[in-house]
Design brief:
Chain lengths: ~400, ~550
C-alpha cells in the first residue's frame, strides 16, 4: 500500500517537473502546433457584445477542427478582473498551470501586467507565422500600446477608432457636432439625448480621454506619465467640461448606460440621438443584425478621434501556452481577420497590410461590403494617440469621486 | 448510517457559513498571509470607510431590506385577510404560486422591460394616449433612490411570503376566528389582523428575516435594477473583490463585514417595526373599533397582489417576445418583424451554461434530498423532531448575507488550491438548496399517516422495507415538489456561482446577468427565458411523474 502511494507520488512529482522543464519554443512552430493539440485554452475576453461572442465561438470551432485545440471563452465584464486573477495566482505562488491562457487586452491593463511581470514573453509575437502579414510599418499603435512598447508580449488583433453614430431619419446631418466643444453645444440644444457609458467601462473612459485630448493645453503632456500632484491642474479642462455637460445628459447624468451595446439599444429606442463606439463598422454590424434601423449613419470629428489597437496576451503562468500561441496565430490569419472585418459578423478593422497578402487572401477583404453606415478610411479623419495609461487610472478615480456618488 | 444524517445536514449548512465568515472577518482585520497580511489592523476598515459614496451605498442596502420586507408583508397580510376562503383567493393563489419558480434575475429583467421609459407599458399607451413619439427622459430603471430595485424585490417576495403564509394557515383556526369576529361585527380584514395574523406571522417570521437578509444583500437584482451612482453596497463589494489592486481584497473583506452589519441593522430595525406594528394593532384593538368599511383596503390588496403577478408574467411575455423579435422600435407595441436568428445564434453557445446549470442543479438537489430524507427518517426513528436550534441552522444560510460568507469561502478555496471545480460549485449550491428542500418536505413528511407503517410493521416488514415500499412511494409527490423547489433555488443562484465558478463554470443565470442590463434585449430575453423555463420544467416533472405513477391509484390522485 505504502509502496503504491509512494510510486504514485513520485510519478506526480516527476510529471510536474517534466511539465515545467518542457518549455515551448515559439520559434519551432511545428512543435508548438503538436503540443497545442488536445489542449484547452481559457480565453478571458470581454463578453458584452453578442456579435463578438459569436465570432469567438466561430474561432473556437475552427481551432478545434484545424488544430484540435479546445477554446473556452471566459466572458468578462471588465478585463481588470483577469489581471486580478493572474495577480492573485502569483501572490499565492501558483507559477504554473494558471487558470487563464489568453487575455483580450490593451492599454492600462497591458501596462499593469507588463509592469508586474505577469506576461509571457517578450518576443513570442514576432515568431508567429502570420506576423509577416501584419501592418507594422503604417500602424504605430501595433508596437506601442498607449505609449508603452509592446515588446512582442501582446499580439495585435484589431484596430479601433472612436466613431459617432446618429439616426439620419431623426437627426439632421448638418446639425452634427464636429468637436467635443460643439458636442457640448449640441447637448445643450438637445437635452437628454446624449450620454456615455459609466466609467470604468472602457468606452466610457475613452470618451473622457477624447475630451481631454481635445481640451488640454499641451496634448504632448498626455504621452507622459502623470502624477497625482499635477493631475488636478492638467485635467481641469476635462472636468470643467463634464460639469457643464452633465445637466444636459440623458437622465441628467443621474444614471449612465452600461456599455456601448446598451447605448445602441437606446439609440434604437430613440432615447439617445448620438452614440459612439470604438469600431467604425459598429453601426453597419448592428444594422446587419437587426439591432439598429438602416437609417443609422456615422461621423467623426475633423480634428481627429482616439485610435488604438487591441491585442491578445498570454499570462506568464498559463497552463496551455502552446494552445494560446496557436490561437493568437489563428487570430492573425487572413481568414480570421477578413471574417472579423465583415460587418455581418463583427466589422472590426484588420491589423494586416493588404499589400503583404497573397492575392487570394486580399480578395477576401476586397469582397467585403463594409455597409452603408461605415465611413471609408479617408472619411475617418485623423487619429489621436492614446494617453499614457496613468491618465486613465487617474481620470477614472477622479470621475468616481465626483460623479459616481449621487448628490 | 441514518444516525449520521442530521450531523451531515448541519455540517453542509454550517461549515461553509462559519468557515466563510472566518475567511471574511480575518482579512477584514488585515490578516491574509497569502497576500502579505500578517498582522491585525483596522486599516481595511479605514480604507473602506473612505470610499466615495459609501454611506449612500449602505443606506440603499439597508432601506431596501426593511422597505421590501415591510411592503411584501403588508400586501400578503392584507390579501390573506381580505380574501382568504373566497374563490378569488384560490384563483390568485394558483396564479401566484408559479411565480416562486421564477429566478430573481429573470423577474428583474422582465420588470425592467415592462416599466422602462421605452418599455412595454409605455409602448402600450404611446403615442395615442401619451403623445410620446419617443420615450420620455425619465429615470425609472437604476433610479438613485432604488425604488425600482425595491419594486423588483417586492414582486418576487410577495409570492414567497404568500406561500409561506398559506403553509402556516392550516395550523391556525382561521375560519372559526373569522366567524367569531364577523359575528362581533368586525370587518373582514380587521378581524383577521386581530386574531389569526399574529399566529400566522409567528410561523413565517424566519422567512421574513430571510427576505430582509436577501434584499439587503442582493447582487443580481441590484445590478439590473439598482442605482449606479453609487451602487448598493453588495454590488460594490463584487467590484472591490475583482479590483486588479490586490490590496483591495482587504478592503472588500472589510466591506463584507460592513455588509453583515447592514443586514444586522436591517433586522434590528425590523424588530422595532414588529414592536410598533404590535403596539398599533393592540391600540386599535383596544379602541374597540370594528373597521367594517374595509372594501377599499381589500380592493387595494387584491390589485397590488394581482399587479405583482401581472408584472412578472408580463415581463416573461415581453422577454419571450424580445427573444424572437427582429427590429422593434419605440413606440411599436409589437416587433416590426419576428425572427429566430437570435435563438439560432445563441443555441450553440447556451449549451455549455445550460449543461452546467442542469447538472449542478440536479446534483445539489439529489444530494440535498437524500440528506433531508435521511434526517427526517432518523427523526422518525428517534421520535425527536429537531429542536429550535436545528431550525436556526436551516435558516442560517438564508439569514447570513451571501456576500458576507461566500467571499470568505472563495478566498479559502483559492488559497487552499481548490479552483473553480464542478464539485465545489455543487457543494456551495447545496448550502442554499438544502434548507429549502427541508422546509418544503418536512411538513408533508411529518403529516404522513403512520398507520400505514404500523400495518406494514405488523405484517413483518423491516423499517427499511417500510421506508422504501410504503413511505417513500406514498410521499413521492411531496419529495418531487421539494426537489423542484431545490432545483429552482439552484438555478437562481447568482453570487455563489459567480464567485466559486470564477467565470469558468457559468450558468444561464450568471450569463444572463453578465450580458448586461441594457444591452442586446434579444439575448437577454433568450437567457432570462431559459432561466425561468428550467424551474418550470422541474415543477412539471414533479406534477407529471406522480400522475403517471399513480394513474391506477385513485386515492393517490390530487383532490
Amino acid at each position: 500500500m505504502m509502496k503504491t502511494l509512494f510510486t504514485a507520488f513520485a510519478a506526480l512529482i516527476l510529471s510536474a517537473s517534466l511539465a515545467s522543464a518542457d518549455e515551448i519554443d515559439p520559434g519551432n512552430w511545428d512543435s508548438v502546433v503538436r503540443k497545442a493539440s488536445g489542449q484547452t485554452v481559457y480565453w478571458n475576453a470581454w463578453g458584452g457584445s453578442e456579435s463578438i461572442n459569436d465570432y469567438i465561438g466561430w474561432v473556437g470551432e475552427e481551432l478545434r477542427e484545424q488544430f484540435g485545440v479546445k477554446l473556452v471563452h471566459v466572458k468578462l465584464d471588465d478585463t481588470a478582473n483577469a489581471v486580478a486573477a493572474v495577480l492573485t495566482e502569483k501572490a499565492a505562488g501558483k507559477h504554473d498551470n494558471g487558470a487563464i491562457d489568453l487575455i483580450w487586452i490593451n492599454g492600462e491593463n497591458f501596462a499593469s501586467m507588463k509592469r508586474q511581470g505577469l506576461l509571457y514573453g517578450p518576443g513570442w509575437v514576432q515568431k508567429l507565422p502570420n506576423w509577416r502579414y501584419v501592418d507594422v510599418e503604417n500602424r504605430p499603435t501595433i508596437t506601442t500600446d498607449f505609449t508603452i512598447p509592446t515588446d512582442g508580449m501582446e499580439s495585435p488583433w484589431g484596430m479601433a477608432k472612436l466613431v459617432f453614430f446618429y439616426d439620419s431619419a431623426r437627426t439632421e446631418a448638418a446639425d452634427l457636432p464636429d468637436s467635443a466643444d460643439e458636442l457640448l453645444q449640441w447637448a445643450k440644444r438637445n437635452p437628454g439625448r446624449f450620454s456615455y457609458p459609466q466609467p470604468p467601462d472602457f468606452i466610457g473612459s475613452s470618451f473622457l480621454k477624447q475630451v481631454l485630448s481635445e481640451r488640454i493645453d499641451d496634448p504632448s503632456r498626455l504621452l507622459e506619465p502623470v502624477d497625482a500632484k499635477e493631475f488636478p491642474a492638467l485635467a481641469k479642462p476635462l472636468f470643467d467640461y463634464l460639469d457643464e455637460l452633465h445637466p444636459h445628459l440623458w437622465r441628467s447624468a443621474r444614471a449612465f448606460p452600461r456599455d456601448y451595446p446598451s447605448m445602441s439599444q437606446l439609440l434604437a429606442d430613440g432615447e439617445l440621438e448620438i452614440t459612439f463606439a470604438f469600431n467604425p463598422a459598429e453601426a453597419s454590424s448592428a444594422i446587419a443584425n437587426d439591432l439598429l434601423p438602416d437609417t443609422i449613419r456615422s461621423f467623426t470629428f475633423s480634428g481627429g478621434t482616439l485610435s488604438n489597437t487591441h491585442f491578445v496576451a498570454i499570462p506568464y503562468n498559463a497552463a496551455a501556452k502552446a494552445g494560446a500561441l496557436v490561437t493568437a496565430n489563428f487570430l492573425l490569419s487572413p481568414e480570421a481577420q477578413a471574417r472579423k472585418q465583415d460587418p455581418d459578423v463583427w466589422g472590426d478593422p484588420t491589423v494586416l497590410a493588404m499589400e503583404k497578402l497573397p492575392d487570394e487572401d486580399r480578395a477576401r477583404f476586397e469582397a467585403l461590403d463594409l455597409g452603408v453606415a461605415t465611413l471609408s478610411p479617408q472619411e475617418l479623419g485623423p487619429a489621436l494617440p492614446e494617453p499614457h495609461p496613468s491618465w486613465m487610472a487617474m481620470i477614472e478615480k477622479e470621475w468616481a469621486a465626483r460623479y459616481g456618488v449621487a448628490n | 448510517m441514518l444516525r449520521l444524517a442530521p450531523a451531515i445536514a448541519i455540517a453542509v449548512l454550517a461549515v461553509p457559513v462559519f468557515g466563510g465568515l472566518a475567511g471574511t472577518v480575518l482579512p477584514a482585520f488585515g490578516y491574509l498571509p497569502a497576500l502579505g497580511g500578517d498582522a491585525f489592523s483596522l486599516e481595511p476598515f479605514r480604507v473602506v470607510l473612505g470610499q466615495p459614496g459609501l454611506l449612500r451605498s449602505c443606506l440603499i442596502a439597508l432601506v431596501a431590506g426593511v422597505v421590501t420586507a415591510a411592503i411584501s408583508v403588508l400586501i400578503v397580510a392584507l390579501f390573506v385577510g381580505g380574501w382568504s376562503g373566497t374563490r378569488t383567493f384560490r384563483r390568485m393563489q394558483s396564479l401566484v404560486s408559479p411565480l416562486l419558480a421564477v429566478p430573481h434575475a429573470a423577474a428583474a429583467f422582465g420588470l425592467a422591460f415592462m416599466i422602462a421609459p421605452s418599455g412595454f407599458v409605455a409602448r402600450l399607451f404611446s403615442p395615442w394616449a401619451t403623445g410620446w413619439a419617443r420615450p420620455p427622459d425619465w429615470l425609472i430603471v437604476n433610479d438613485p433612490l432604488g425604488l425600482t430595485f425595491m419594486a423588483g424585490l417586492v414582486v418576487k417576495e410577495v409570492p414567497f411570503l404568500l406561500l409561506m403564509a398559506l403553509a402556516a394557515a392550516p395550523q391556525v383556526p382561521m375560519a372559526a376566528s373569522a366567524r367569531l369576529t364577523s359575528s362581533l361585527g368586525y370587518g373582514r380584514t380587521a378581524g383577521f389582523l386581530f386574531t389569526s395574523w399574529p399566529a400566522i406571522y409567528r410561523q413565517i417570521r424566519l422567512a421574513v428575516f430571510a427576505v430582509i437578509a436577501f434584499a439587503s444583500s442582493a447582487v443580481d437584482v441590484a445590478v439590473i435594477l439598482g442605482p449606479t451612482t453609487p451602487a448598493a453596497l453588495p454590488v460594490r463589494l463584487v467590484e472591490w473583490m475583482n479590483d486588479p489592486d490586490l490590496s483591495s481584497r482587504f478592503m472588500a473583506s472589510a466591506g463584507a463585514v460592513l455588509q453583515l452589519g447592514v443586514t444586522l441593522a436591517a433586522l434590528v430595525i425590523w424588530l422595532l417595526v414588529e414592536k410598533l406594528a404590535a403596539a398599533v394593532t393592540m391600540h386599535l384593538c383596544g379602541q374597540g373599533r370594528r373597521f367594517r368599511a374595509d372594501r377599499i383596503v381589500r380592493q387595494v390588496a387584491l390589485v397590488l397582489t394581482a399587479l405583482t403577478a401581472l408584472m412578472v408574467f408580463g415581463g416573461m411575455f415581453v422577454l419571450a417576445l424580445w427573444s424572437v423579435s427582429g427590429l422593434w422600435q419605440f413606440p411599436h407595441v409589437l416587433p416590426d418583424s419576428l425572427s429566430l436568428s437570435g435563438w439560432m445564434k445563441v443555441m450553440p453557445r447556451i449549451a455549455g451554461p445550460l449543461a452546467t446549470t442542469v447538472t449542478v442543479g440536479l446534483a445539489a438537489t439529489v444530494l440535498s434530498a437524500l440528506i433531508v430524507i435521511a434526517s427526517l427518517a432518523r427523526e422518525r426513528q428517534t421520535g425527536r423532531t429537531g429542536a429550535n436550534w436545528t431550525l436556526f441552522f436551516l435558516y442560517l444560510p438564508l439569514l447570513v448575507p451571501q456576500a458576507g460568507f461566500v467571499f470568505g469561502l472563495k478566498l479559502f478555496l483559492t488559497h487552499g488550491g481548490v479552483g473553480a471545480t464542478w464539485a465545489a460549485l455543487v457543494l456551495v449550491h447545496m448550502v442554499f438548496v438544502l434548507p429549502y428542500v427541508f422546509l418544503s418536505l418536512s411538513a408533508p413528511w411529518r403529516a404522513f399517516d403512520t398507520r400505514y407503517e404500523a400495518i406494514a410493521a405488523g405484517l413483518g416488514k423491516s423499517a427499511w422495507q417500510t421506508l422504501f415500499a410504503i413511505r417513500l412511494p406514498m410521499l413521492s409527490r411531496a419529495i418531487l415538489v421539494a426537489m423542484a423547489v431545490g432545483f429552482a433555488v439552484s438555478v437562481g443562484q447568482y453570487l455563489p456561482t459567480l464567485l466559486i465558478g470564477a467565470g469558468r463554470l457559468v450558468t444561464v443565470t450568471t450569463e444572463a446577468v453578465a450580458l448586461g442590463a441594457g444591452g442586446n434585449r434579444r439575448v437577454i430575453g433568450i437567457y432570462a427565458f431559459v432561466q425561468m423555463l428550467l424551474p418550470f420544467l422541474g415543477f412539471a416533472v414533479a406534477a407529471l411523474v406522480p400522475a403517471l405513477l399513480f394513474r391506477d391509484r385513485r386515492a393517490m390522485k390530487v383532490a
